[in-house]
Design goal:
The protein contains 9 helices and 17 strands. It is of the alpha+beta class and 389 residues long. Among the domains are: 123 residues, D-Amino Acid Oxidase, subunit A, domain 2 (D-Amino Acid Oxidase, Chain A, domain 2), CATH 3.30.9.10; 93 residues, Alpha-Beta Plaits (2-Layer Sandwich). The strands form 5 sheets. Strands 1, 2, 3, 4, 5 and 6 form a 6-stranded antiparallel β-sheet that branches. The N and C termini lie far apart (64 Å).
């Protein structure tokens, strides 16, 4: 099957999977005396190696070496559709494109300068926008499962296979797999978004990422009506489920400076928190997932799905949700708007995940109507002791 045929199979059902193949090149040398000597004197193969400066990786290949790159000048392969007649053919060599990385590699590992190049390999390499696999049941489709974008088959295949087997047989993967759950992407993950994020991820494959660092690819993508006003006020944004969400407000002239310790936002965020605690603050809540649940069976269904007491009309309540084994899979706020009308608010990044769960547990008699509002409902939260004034 073609390396991204999952994309084309998905389209048969109306599903657009966020997956893209990149051209990936590596070279294999002729036999190297240094490799042979190491094997004979040590009794083992050379260790694998990653060179972060050169964006390259090395490993022994028979009596020679393999050198591969994750080059900055990366190139997608067949970004719109995949030829159905493509099997396991290789792509044309383009050694000039990876020359800057190879120059670093040959400088850092001088033995390569004396080695002949036996073969140059260029082939499609499949990625999702964040580089993790896309695994799990697909929302709205019966017995339709995804297991694609597995870019490192030997290292990831076992875990992906185990999670999928558990899921199919027992209804649960058996461990936390949200980082590779296909539901972490919603309809926002278009072809353009996927292309930009995959290229960014590929070109940064060996780049060290700081905690909480936000990457610029495909941004801004989704914004709310007050995005420009927030930006003018100094908002520093993060991307969540495709949406630009303000994280903190930087003083004029200040920008994000990430660190392994405390980044430059630490004192500013502390001052923001103190202002809300002592006085009043405003926070945009548009990034939360919002669901309406209506119908004659709405209250009974929610009472079964959530672990809280159903609030009285006009009231709200915290509402955890458990799965079949009693483990937490959601933490919501539930508001009762009317006798048959409810509003449920939860984590924005888990909207598709929770909708998959909700829809699979809806009563068959049509007594409950469920709708995800997404950005159809946006808003602000006003908090602090002075908020009523």
């Amino acid at each position: 099957m073609p390396p991204v045929s999952g994309r084309e199979v998905g389209r048969m059902t109306g599903l657009e999977l966020p997956v893209l193949a990149m051209e990936h090149m590596y070279l294999i040398t002729e036999d190297m005396p240094e490799v042979i000597e190491f094997n004979q004197t040590r009794g083992k193969e050379l260790m694998h190696c990653v060179d972060f400066d050169g964006e390259i990786y090395l490993r022994q290949e028979r009596n020679g070496m393999l050198m591969g790159t994750y080059e900055k000048a990366c190139r997608p392969w067949s970004p719109i559709t995949t030829p159905w007649d493509f099997g396991h053919e290789l792509l044309a060599e383009d050694i000039e494109r990876i020359t800057p990385e190879l120059e670093v590699g040959f400088r850092h590992f001088p033995a390569f300068n004396n080695a002949g190049i036996k073969k140059i390999i260029n082939g499609p390499f499949t990625f999702s926008p964040d580089g993790n696999p896309l695994v799990g049941p697909v929302r709205g489709l019966t017995n339709y499962w995804s297991a694609c974008a597995v870019m490192a088959g030997f290292s990831q295949g076992g875990g992906v296979g185990l999670a999928l087997a558990n899921w199919i047989i027992y209804g649960d993967p058996g461990f936390d797999v949200f980082a590779m759950d296909v539901s972490r992407y919603g309809d926002f993950a278009t072809l353009g978004f996927t292309n930009a994020k995959v290229r960014e991820n590929y070109s940064r494959r060996f780049s060290i990422r700081y905690p909480n660092e936000e990457l610029p690819g495909a941004r801004p993508f989704l914004t709310t009506p007050i995005y420009d006003k927030l930006k003018e006020a100094g908002a520093v944004f993060g991307a969540s489920y495709g949406l630009e969400s303000p994280l903190w407000f930087a003083p004029k002239g200040e920008e994000d400076k990430f660190s392994w310790r405390r980044s430059n936002d630490f004192d500013v965020v502390g001052a923001e928190a103190k202002a809300v605690r002592d006085s009043v603050g405003v926070m945009e809540t548009s990034g939360f997932a919002k669901y309406t649940i209506t119908g004659k069976g709405a209250e009974a269904w929610l009472d079964r799905m959530l672990t809280c007491r159903i609030p009285a009309k006009g009231r709200m309540s915290l509402a955890p949700m458990l799965k079949d084994d009693g483990k937490l899979i959601g933490d919501f706020t539930l508001a009762k708007l009317g006798e048959r009308d409810f509003l449920l608010i939860g984590s924005g990044i888990a909207e598709d995940y929770h909708m998959r769960w909700f829809e699979s547990h809806l009563p068959k008699d049509g007594s409950v109507a469920l709708k995800a509002l997404n950005l159809q409902l946006v808003g602000l939260s006003i908090a602090g002791p002075n908020s009523p004034r």
